[in-house]
Amino acid sequence: MTRDTTPASSDRILASPRGRGRAAPPLDGATMSGASSRLLGGALRLLGRAGGMEKAVVRALPAEAKLSISLTLSGSQRQLQRDQAEPLGRALARISASATKSKKRKEPPAPGPPVRLYYRGQPVSEAQTNAEAWQDGAELRVGDAVYRVERNPPMCPELELPRHVMADFPVCPRLRLEFADPDHSLFVWYKQQARGEAGDCPESGAQQRWEEAGHERVLTPAVGDIGARLKLRCTPGDGSRYGESRELELDGPVEAGPGACTFDERHLYTQRQTEEPVTRAVSYNLLADVYAQTEHARTVLFPYCAPYALEMEYRHCLIRKELSGYRANLLCLQEVDRAVFSDSLAPALEAFGLDGLFRLKDKQHEGLATFYRRSRYRLCSQHDILLGEALTADPLHQDLLQSLSCYPGAKDKMLQRSSALQVSVLESTADPSRKVCVANTHLYFHPKGGNIRLLQIAVALSHIRHVAYELYPGIPIIFCGDFNSTPSTGMYSFVRDGTISESHEDWTSNGEEERCNMSLSHPLKLKSACGEPAYTNYVGGFHGCLDYIFIDSESLEVEQVIPMPSHEEVTSHQALPSVSHPSDHIALICDLRWK
Q1: Helix axes 450-465, 408-416, angle to 10 degrees
Q2: Which of 108, 260, 380, 469 is the most exposed place for a label (fewest CB within 10 A)?
């Protein structure tokens, strides 16, 4: 839980829908460094305040029929919604009426004060539309009161911090900006040391000062900050001006971390980002919170894991540190909760330079996420599908559907599955002619579902071939995912070898009722970039290799594979997930070079 300490005067304009908290005294200027004071002083000067003049904030977007006018009238904050196409005179008359609105309904309304709008010293015609009349820098006069009009100023309607913050783990605010962007906004972190520490004898009731702790969007508290409180001030900007600052204070102190994590050693291999023509790819099943936070998960699936380590806030502290430390250019994630993507993962990774795409599974609360480093790639197009739906709806799979119609049991099971395929075509920012097809999937999980996984991968490979061979001829393929298949299965050999015979045992993996023997082939030349690790999933009762990064062997070669955690690290808390590892899977990481 966090506390919003934004001054009350801006609550109406900037308050978050989720905002809860109490007001706090402004920061003592004596605690601010010269650099920070100059930054914030410049921001305030650019706010456009003139000698304490009141403001009338106008929010107007071309795509919206109405605009809003926010200002203080008779001591109360008012927000008027007006049609953009209506004449200005009607809006001014409404402002006049609002300035004299009585709280007692029985009293007749008093005549309103004269209201006029001026721009560059000249009165604005009341026949103009609201869309044209309300210009930035105009002056609104309501009786003797003068308001400076700010049209679409930079705003920060939402600012949130995680409930739990741990030392040595990055803290990234979730924010929503309007008419602003993070790169042109100011972020100043403050910390307040805990009272009562050894050797610390503060005066009784003395107000402890906030000290500056950082000036970036992301802050990583040090071990020495354990017990300290944190506060963030965000001043939204658009490159030419700044808006009202917003402050948020963490309710709880910085907590101690779990100590060594399974990914710490791996980060030693990824301390630097790769450069052209090498790109770093990661595939990782995060373990969806919708599955981790259930009684079944706590008592049956992961009884060895401390309950607090299954909580979303704790696991996502670890996930943010783990993913940011890999410095990936391409990041394919599975089991990503819809709310987690929008509220936590996308904002955090955006702060680390990654843009994300999300694909929800059919009738599920989780799905697939693909992130790409925006300094390296631009999105060209997306070609996501639901595997079952595509089988029946896309003529591309007509032959497979016809063959499967002979096996109604397998066909029904295939069409009931919610699995999706995420396909993104990206182009290099350095060389737009260099494109890549990045695919991401999570196949059917059931241990006896080998036949369904063969059908799913057949649909997936056919769709990927269409994108990479026909829509964008000749572009290389990187196909990541949790395939729920070990290297001994038909799914793996089909991807690797390009064929599967009708006699393969996986066609009868779930008995005679779901048997669907058929011969399949595909033309893609794919290989597992990370080989065949002993396991990528390690839980009580099972461990095995289920995850792969398949690459186009004719266009890409492996520069290096980041070593997996040691067996001792994985089993230090019996199995996964644990207090030192956030998922039941282990991320695959490799550096790939264009041939």
Answers
A1: 70
A2: 108
- The DSSP secondary-structure symbol of 206 reads -
Alpha carbons 134 and 207: distance in angstroms, whole number:
44
Strands 330-337 and 278-285, bridge-based pairing: parallel
pLDDT at 16: 32
Distance CA 22, CA 2 (A): 10
238 Cβ contact partners less than 8 Å away, ≥ 6 residues apart: 154, 179, 180, 181, 184
DSSP conformation letters of 267-294: HTT-SS---TTEEEEEEEE---HHHHSS
Q: What mean pLDDT do residues 228-237 have?
A: 97
pLDDT at 74: 85
Cβ-based neighbours of 312, under 8 Å, separated by 6 or more: 289, 292, 293, 340
pLDDT of 208: 79
The band of 223, judged by pLDDT with boundaries at 50, 70 and 90, is very high
- Cβ(146)–Cβ(55) below 8 Å: no
- Sequence-distant (6+) residues with CB within 8 A of 47 are 153, 241, 242, 243, 244
Lowest-confidence pick of 152-166, 318-332, 575-589: 152-166
Pair 292, 365: CB distance under 8 Å: no
Q: What three-state secondary structure class fits 223?
A: helix
The closest of 189, 185, 238, 184 to 215, measured between CA atoms, is: 189
Alpha-carbon distance of 263 to 582, in angstroms, equals 10
**Inter-residue contact 191 to 210 (CB < 8 Å):** yes
Please state the pTM of the whole predicted model. 0.85
Rama region for 315: left / alpha / beta (φ>0; ψ in -120 to 50; rest): alpha
The pLDDT tens digits of the residues spanning 37-93 come to: 444 444 444 444 444 589 999 999 999 999 999 999 988 999 999 999 999 999 999
Looking at 482, 506, 584, 591, which residue is catalytic? Answer: 482
Q: Quote the tokens at residue 236.
A: 């939204």
What is the rounded CA–CA span in Å between residue 460 and residue 133? 54
| 161: nearest Cα among 4, 351, 44, 394 | 4
d(CA 250, CA 194): 13
Tens-digit pLDDT profile for residues 176-205: 999 999 999 999 999 998 765 444 544 444
Q: How far apart are CA 155 and CA 174, in angstroms?
A: 14
- Mean pLDDT, residues 413-430 taken together: 97
| 362 has catalytic annotation | no
CA torsion through residues 511, 495, 396, 439, sign: positive
